[in-house]
């Protein structure tokens, strides 16, 4: 039972981290290495740390708990649930917040345990996921937070692109600089961290812009070297730190269009088929329960992925010059969704290669 298998090469990821940390530090930006896409896998976390990230960041407290042995500040990325505040203050040094009730609960939990908890106030600059949207609400929030014991407001931040697809630009990010200065002046405090988003902000650095931010929370760019606004490869990085191997379980000549009336597939979608006649179809033992199929790119570029069901991947192998046999292994590169899903699936074996 060796397949499906995800091959992980931490050395490649470490090189990616070094290149990106260096690009960021030229712009006075510190990097929080986001581990959620790899379920906080420790070999990858070690690559992040030796590559030079300043923080480890994750959306799930389970992952941060797992990382407690690493002596580096931890950041909770998803707004905390009130039901988990005890764990947050214990295992995260910093959390991103936008709700006063949650920060009050964090304060109570931190006071109970007698620890200081740092928060970054999230602002919604138009992507419409988390963050205070109405700028008037910022000051009321801060005034209440400043009264709370064991809570330290250390920064402001925003998240872009993830929900609304909003591409960062200097005009959007400059708002953070303006707001930060106005908070500092009004309350006579230091806003140490201005966190300007995720991997979608990187392209602005490559373009030589001066940004009013000093922190980025990066996942996809470190893992795959991709900036996510335009999907281009960042200089000095590679996208082959992960490789998926699957085993062929059937090879047969079959028509390209199903025979009979077509209803909906196993996932409720009505499939469409282009009639290309009889083709060599290859079936692999991996499916949507394991990996995001549309995130896979076959290494043999003459293979064409037709689709998948929960446990099967269906490939048109007719254009390939290779003479595949049942039991052979096919290899694929993965996009971010592919890495995230394969890392999360218990059915996909993980093999670290140094
Ligand atoms: C996931 C996440 C990130 C990292 O996003 P990438 O596109 O992988 O760099 C950053 N910030 C927050 C709040 C996130 O949830």
* Low-pLDDT segments, ≥5 res: none
How are helices and strands ordered from N to C? EHEHEHEHEHEHEHEHEHEEEEEEHE
CATH architecture of the largest domain: Alpha-Beta Barrel
Stated plainly, the CATH topology of the largest domain is called TIM Barrel
Mean pLDDT: 96
Which characteristics define this entry?
single chain; 354 residues; alpha/beta; TIM Barrel; Lyase, Ornithine Decarboxylase, Chain A, domain 1; 2 domains; eight-stranded mixed beta sheet; eight-stranded parallel beta sheet; 10 helices; 16 strands; 24% strand; binds pyridoxal-5'-phosphate; Ala_racemase; Ala_racemase_N
Protein described:
The protein has helices at 10-26, 42-51, 61-66, 85-91, 100-113, 136-146, 170-187, 202-206, 220-224, 336-344, and strands spanning 5-8, 30-34, 55-58, 74-76, 94-97, 117-123, 151-158, 193-195, 215-218, 242-255, 278-284, 296-298, 304-308, 313-316, 329-334, 349-352. The protein has 10 helices and 16 strands. The chain has 354 residues and is an alpha/beta fold. Strands 1, 10, 11, 12, 13, 14, 15 and 16 form an 8-stranded mixed beta sheet that branches. Strands 8-7-6-5-4-3-2-9 form an 8-stranded parallel beta sheet. The relative contact order is 0.15. The two termini are 22 Å apart. Helix content is 29%, strand content 24%. Helix 4 links the parallel strand 4 (74-76) and strand 5 (94-97). The chain folds into 2 domains: 10-224, TIM Barrel (Alpha-Beta Barrel), CATH 3.20.20; 242-334, Lyase, Ornithine Decarboxylase, Chain A, domain 1 (Beta Barrel), CATH 2.40.37. It binds pyridoxal-5'-phosphate. Pyridoxal-5'-phosphate (PLP) is lined by residues 34, 36, 59, 77, 96, 159, 198-199, 217-221, 228.
């Amino acid at each position: 039972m060796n397949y499906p298998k995800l091959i992980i090469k931490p050395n490649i990821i470490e090189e990616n981290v070094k290149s990106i940390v260096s690009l960021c530090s030229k712009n006075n930006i510190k990097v929080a290495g986001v581990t959620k896409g790899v379920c906080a896998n420790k070999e990858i976390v070690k690559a992040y740390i030796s590559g030079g990230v300043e923080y480890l960041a994750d959306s799930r407290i389970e992952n941060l708990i797992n990382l407690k042995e690493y002596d580096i500040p931890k950041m909770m990325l998803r707004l905390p649930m009130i039901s988990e505040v005890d764990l947050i203050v214990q295992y995260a040094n910093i959390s991103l917040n936008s709700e006063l009730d949650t920060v009050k609960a964090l304060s109570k939990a931190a006071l109970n345990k007698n620890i200081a908890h740092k928060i970054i106030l999230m602002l919604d600059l138009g992507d419409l996921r988390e963050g205070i949207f109405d700028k008037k609400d910022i000051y009321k929030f801060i005034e209440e937070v400043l009264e709370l014991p064991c809570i330290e407001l250390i920064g402001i931040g925003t998240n872009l692109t993830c929900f609304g697809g909003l591409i960062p630009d200097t005009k959007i990010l400059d708002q953070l600089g303006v707001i930060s200065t106005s908070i500092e002046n009004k309350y006579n405090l230091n806003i140490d961290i201005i966190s300007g988003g995720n991997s979608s902000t990187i392209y602005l650095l490559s373009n030589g812009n001066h940004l009013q931010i000093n922190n980025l929370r990066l996942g996809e760019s470190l893992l795959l070297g991709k900036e996510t606004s335009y999907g281009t490869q960042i200089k000095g990085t590679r996208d082959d730190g992960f490789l998926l191997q699957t085993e062929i379980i059937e090879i047969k000549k079959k028509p390209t269009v199903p025979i009979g009336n077509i209803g909906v597939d196993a996932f409720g979608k009505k499939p469409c088929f282009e009639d290309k006649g009889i083709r060599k179809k290859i079936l692999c033992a991996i499916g949507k329960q394991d990996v995001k199929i549309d995130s896979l790119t076959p290494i043999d570029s003459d293979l064409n992925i037709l689709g998948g069901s929960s446990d099967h991947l269906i490939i048109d192998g007719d254009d390939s010059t290779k003479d595949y046999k049942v039991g052979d292994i096919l290899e694929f590169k993965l996009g971010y969704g592919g890495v995230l899903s394969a890392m999360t699936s218990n059915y996909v074996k993980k093999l670290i290669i140094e």
